Amino acid sequence: MMFLAPNLNGLPKQLLFLLTPYQNSSMPRTFMQKQVVRVQVLFLQPICAVWLCARSCPPHCFCTQEKNCSVLCDHLGLSQVPNGFPCKASFISLDKNNIKFLSEKAFGTLPSLQRLSLNHNNLSFITPGTFKGLPNLAELKMAHNKYIRYLHTRTFTALKKLTKLDLADCNLFNVPDRIFIDLPSLQELIFFQNNFRRIPGAIRGMRNLTHIYLERNKIEAVAYNSLQDLGNLTYLNLQANKISVIHDKSFQDCKRMEYLYLNDNLLSELPEASFKELRHLKMLNLGRNFIRNVSSAWFQDLVELEVLYLDQNSISYIEEGTFENLSSLVSLHLNGNNLKSFSYSIFKPIYFLGKLYLFRNPWDCNCKIEWLKEWMESYRLVRDIPCFSPKSVAGVDLSEVTFHKSPEGFCLDPAEHNTSVTPTVVVGIHSTMESKLNSFLSKLLLHRGRLPASRNVSSTFSNFTGIEGMDDGSSSGIEEHDKTHLTNCLLVFIMAQIVDVL
């Protein structure tokens, strides 16, 4: 096998082990050549790629020995991009260095590179054409670079396969409208925690965008054309901005939207057709705004909505029919508002709700929300609804409030019911009346001199059932007309005490 010898020099031991059996073999030369070709096809290329990745690693960096060549140059205090990356590199990390400037073709030509990370550096300027030698780059991360204030229109030229771009937590105030014109494959755009005052016009017409992160900026409005021609957008995060205005039908081109975050803004009103045609929306967050009234027109098209946040607003009124079409809703958050009461008809269409959050509202626990208490007991989907009024049940959870019925079968509010005599009060009145009656009888009988001092006429109110009951073996000697007079006096006394109590 002399023809094999030149091909074995310098190869890894794993490959030598696979080829050694053929060196001393008596098999025909043609057969052995075929086997060598098979070994080269199956093993030589990947093993050589791993071997070359580690061998040509830049100084101080770490290159993995795995199939996909990864070059890790993070936390090294680098002030510029190193030279000589392995040509087979598929991932390069330069995170947490001190790189300030990216020159043209800063990474050379790396046809296998798919992911590049430059997070947490001090980048201030990116030369147009910096990434020109990276034709297959799919993911580019440059987040947490506080000095990036400006991007040239041609910054991302030639990145036709880029699907994810991360520029979060930089210092961007705006980007050129045509900056993404060479990024037809872009799907995920991460721009959160910058200084945008409006939604960047550069995203208009990006038909392949599916995810946009714009939270924690300074955006003031969502204009009618801000999201124009974003037909594949499924996720939009605009939370923690300064949005006070949303134009009518602003989201009409986002027909595939599934997740929409508008919480922590300055919204007090919404157009009636704000969310029209968002039939695939699954989660809508409008929490922590200043909404006072909820219109029945807002959610009419949201037939697939599963989670709705309206918490921590100033809502005091929900229009009847608001949740009429939300047949898929499983979680509704209304906690932290100004709700005092609402009718059963508002919630009747969503009786299959999984969770309903109503705590931290000034609930008036009267008969108008008796149905809610029954719903709590029947479905166990709601809890923690402390009453704010009336005073008789203030601080008491609605689940512990008792709604009594009038003789006609009508519900009695807790305050109304509490004016009637309770069992504990009746006991006190009974004891007082008994004491007065005993005193009255004793004085009356002793005054007539007919009753021995040792005689206990009536030890309890119930024992004094009739004056004739005293005519037993130890008769008191009271005459018949005296008995009648005494009975009449007792009746007058009892009636007077009853009137006094009532």
Give a written overview of the molecule.
- It comes from Geotrypetes seraphini (Gaboon caecilian).
- The chain has helices spanning 5-8, 13-23, 29-55, 344-347, 370-379, 414-417, 423-448, 480-501; strands at 62-63, 69-72, 89-93, 101-102, 115-117, 125-126, 139-141, 164-166, 188-190, 211-213, 221-222, 235-237, 245-246, 259-261, 283-285, 293-294, 307-309, 317-318, 331-333, 355-357, 363-364, 387-389, 404-405, 411-412.
- With 502 residues, the chain is an alpha/beta fold.
- It has a domain at 423-501.
- The strands form 6 sheets. The chain has a 14-stranded mixed β-sheet with strand order 1-2-3-5-7-8-9-10-12-14-15-17-19-20.
- The radius of gyration is 43 Å and the shape is elongated.
Topology readout:
Layout: H1 5-8, H2 13-23, H3 29-55, E1 62-63, E2 69-72, E3 89-93, E4 101-102, E5 115-117, E6 125-126, E7 139-141, E8 164-166, E9 188-190, E10 211-213, E11 221-222, E12 235-237, E13 245-246, E14 259-261, E15 283-285, E16 293-294, E17 307-309, E18 317-318, E19 331-333, H4 344-347, E20 355-357, E21 363-364, H5 370-379, E22 387-389, E23 404-405, E24 411-412, H6 414-417, H7 423-448, H8 480-501
Parallel strand pairs: 2-3, 3-5, 4-6, 5-7, 7-8, 8-9, 9-10, 10-12, 11-13, 12-14, 14-15, 15-17, 16-18, 17-19, 19-20, 21-22
Antiparallel strand pairs: 1-2, 23-24
Helix pairs in contact: 2-3, 7-8
Domain LRRCT: 361-407
Protein name: Nyctalopin
Keywords: Leucine-rich repeat, Repeat, Signal
